[in-house]
Each structure stands twice: as structure tokens, then as C-alpha cells.
Specification:
D-ribulose-phosphate 3-epimerase activity, isomerase, eight-stranded parallel beta sheet, alpha/beta, 216 residues, TIM Barrel
Length: 216
Amino acid sequence: MSILIAPSVLASDFANIQREIEMLNASESDYIHVDIMDGVFVPNISFGVPVTEAINKHAKKPLDVHLMIVNPDQYLEIFRKAGAEIITVHYEACTHLHRTLQAIKQIGAQAGVALNPHTSVDLLEDVIQQIDLVCIMSVNPGFGGQKFIDNTYDKVRKLKALIERKGASTKIEIDGGVNKENAPLLKEAGADILVAGSFVFSAEDPISTIKNLKTI
């Protein structure tokens, strides 16, 4: 099965967001990755509900919304209404993760859990069967264009083994520093979805870049 690609609009041209979304619609991308940052959980502020709604208005691909925020439970329904088909919360931001996962599913979205680079995949053992997607952060969250953390490969393999051992159908997503060099290695380790921001939007031909990533 070919790898799934979720370009991150955090790296797009915000002044021409409609044009950027239409480019993604015309590409072979599978999802549109939307990073929500609050300046508290991560040291940066991106965009919120109104921009997510604007993206959704033009998007023909499912929105993969990544909440890098404190108290995500307060915002699940509002982001679902804004168009999120996948809602990913951070393990580190959820005191009652199982309850949060149930809440995401109750509003009809797929439930994702993101792990910061220092967070062990072992912590998901008791809830892995309730998770549709685990987003492994391969950079420290908050800013685009960072260098890929090499320990990610081992983390993916470990998570893949946990998923198989528990008989779960969870997909593994990688977010941060993805490029043509590490993409084949990530796929080999067990990744299902690659989030690509700067690598796609800084390319001379983003549509070809996405297509090339799909064929690794």
C-alpha cells in the first residue's frame, strides 16, 4: 500500500490560502493537515477556528486537524463543526485521554493522539485500540522547518509492534522534517501517513513533490 500524504498548511502562503488549498485538491495528497497552536502548549500561535472553516470551504480532501493546545476537550466540537474529520490531541495535554478519545468519536470524527519526542509509545498501550491515528512528532512541536529527530525510526517500529500485538487498526503518522531522504525509511519502519510542510510548499513544483512522496 502506498504511503498517505498530509501536506501541512502551516507552511503554505497564508495570503493565498484558497489558491494553496486548490493546489492540494489537484494533487495526490490524501489529507490536509491543519496545525492549531495556542502559544501556551507550544511556543507559537498559528490559526484557529475561522481559518479552519475557510480552509474547509475550499478543501476537497479530509481535514486532519492537529490540536497543539491546552484543554483540547473544550474545542473538540467546535473544530468538528469547522470541518475536522480527524481530530488529534496531544497525550501531554490530556489528563483523561480515554474520555477525550470517546468524546472525539461521539461527535463523528476519527480520534488521533500526538506524542512529543520525549513521550514513550508505551504510554498508549491501554488505549491503542481506541485510537485511529498516532501522530509521532519527529521535531519538537511549535515551528515548521525543523531538523528531523533520528530516534523517530525506533519509535515507529516500537509503535508498530504495539499496534500489531494489540490487534489494533491504528495508523502511524509522522509530523516534522519529512523529506525525500527520510520518507522511504519511515515507510519501511511502519509509517502510514507523512505530514510534509516546508518540503512540499517550498518546492518548485509542489504537486510533483507530493506525487513523488506517494511513490516511495
